[in-house]
Amino acid sequence: MAVPQSKEPASSDPAAAANPAPLVLASASPRRLQLLQQIGMTPADIDPADIDETPRKRELPPAYAKRIAAAKADAVVARHGGAFVLAADTVVAVGRRILPKPEDEAAARACLTLLSGRRHRVLGAVVVQAPDGRRADVLVTTAVVFKRLCEAEIEDYLAGGEWRGKAGGYAIQGRAAAFIPRIIGSYPNVVGLPLVETRNLLTGLGYRT
């Protein structure tokens, strides 16, 4: 009679069944962290990339978004060997024009004035690198329609301060939601991270929650 082969006992440590490699978010954005937590993909570490985000001369919005997301990933991968690294960039574009992430009211006012009564694009570029060096990326585009804003609405929004550092000078998850009657595409992409596509990139490279 054949003698059954012995097997290693199953580990009772829950960590053993989890990912052997941690997830690192290459962003300081609290919105991206909250979105990842929403789908159960809480990163083990947050390490923002400090890179030059100045657009190149005549650089188009899609190329810019992909380049910046890849540069963020490159900067953080070098500091986290053996981890999954997730980097992203969100760009608000009107035609070929890349809108800034304003740090002063004048720049934010210019953004809101330009967006008023128009349809624009929000481009979300996401890059994931696996511990073995494999890399995957995606670019997601959402169309956003702004109602026509009066001067009082712009000034009231500026006074609230939530525009500071936001692409295009507004936050759809905040008071600016009152300016947006319609979007076509991914809502979380406008907030800061397209969730369906991000999850697909991570799981496709082997990350498991």
From TrEMBL:
Residue segments, region Disordered: 1-22
UniProt-recorded Gene Ontology molecular function terms: nucleoside triphosphate diphosphatase activity
Keyword flag ATP-binding: no
CC cofactor: a divalent metal cation
Localization: Cytoplasm
Biased composition (Low complexity): 9-22
Active site: D89
Protein task: Nucleoside triphosphate pyrophosphatase that hydrolyzes dTTP and UTP. May have a dual role in cell division arrest and in preventing the incorporation of modified nucleotides into cellular nucleic acids.
Protein name as annotated: dTTP/UTP pyrophosphatase
Phylogenetic classification of the source organism: Bacteria, Pseudomonadati, Pseudomonadota, Alphaproteobacteria, Rhodospirillales
